[in-house]
User: Fold these one by one.
Assistant:
Number 1:
Amino acid sequence: MSKNQEKIEDLINATQDPVARAILLVLSNIDYALTKNTEATQSVIDTFAEHRKDFDLHRNEFRSHVAEEHSLISGIKAAWWAATTMGAAIIWLAGYIIVSQATQLEKDSGQIRVNTLRLGVIENKVGELERRQQFDEQLRTGGK
């Protein structure tokens, strides 16, 4: 029982007036209700304070998590750019090699054509030389 409640009880016991007693009883009920309301409010305040601490802790953990994810995403972006750049460099290098090989193949094919023509000319000259030698041999031997 609160101090106010004790004082009101003392006043109720001391008075003989029924109207004053009724008012004091109502006042006692109001005091009791206010006391319980204050206790309930304090309980809500305490619970809210605990909830607030938990919420702050969760919010800080969430901020840390978001920072970690941002760091991870930045790393992934950097790796993606590196891989894309390397891929582009490899594609460019492969294209350069293919063009270079095609150019060299074309030069080699042209040289083979030139050498084939030269070989044909030499074979014709050798054949002509052999025919002359045979003809000269026949002339020397008298056609035998």
Note: Residues 138 and 144 are 7 Å apart (CA to CA).
Number 2:
Amino acid sequence: MGLKNKLFPKKGKQKDKTIVNIKKQIHQLKLKSKALNQKSELYRKNAKIALKNGNKERSKNYLVQWKSYRNKINRNTNLSSKLERYIDAIEEGRLIKGLESTLSASTAALKDLAVSASPEKVATLSEESEEYIAMIEESGEILAGDPEIDQGINIDGEFEKLESEVLLEAAGEIPEIPVEEEFLIDEIPEMETKEKLKDEIAKLKKELEE
């Protein structure tokens, strides 16, 4: 390892140092357990041989040694399991810590949105909007008005007369649903307009000359 790496180790390596040390300890415990298992099996075999030879006391002593090694192996297994749990907890803790800033930013954003778009504000804005729409529609109705009412013209009699004429022309029947008109007289023919305009100009010149 170069001097630069010693003085300025990478952050990732620093963070993993704890886990690496724990894994080393787990590996050492497993190696010890393997050696203890070999010794325990040896004592059990000796206990069996002693018993076959009729030496019960020696067989029991060998079994005591075998049991002692088995207990040590169990302790090492428990320690290894606990250390593995530490590794899992550290990795999970680091993951949560890494998510902390993201969760914090998300919470702040959600808070701002919740305040800006709170149910009370939305309800108020919606109510105000409906009021404004109603005001605009009312203004439109006032401006549009009803010509018959606004101008004080009563056309009831003329409308009844027109309706009678239409009934006669339509063989006594008026469509219940309006149909598209064949045509509407909405402008004076262009030729007629030009001729009328010329006449008006001529009359005006004559009046000025007099």
Note: The CA atoms of residues 13 and 87 lie 15 Å apart.
Number 3:
Amino acid sequence: MTSEEYVEELHRNGVKLIKNDGSHSEIPSDFLKRATELCSQLTCSSISYDIFDPQDSEHTKLRVLECGYAE
């Protein structure tokens, strides 16, 4: 499964990003592109996002590496 497929599967399963104010938002279609661009701008090797997964309360982070790999 590619990172794009993984992120799309999360989206289909109702996983949401948690904003700084605690509200939830949809994972945008260009999420990986935006995350890797932000990582490049911040000169970091990866960036992590808090997520809400309605099917798995232990799944609370979505990490994107500078190369675009999502886990």
Note: Strands lie at 16-18, 24-25, 46-52, 61-65.
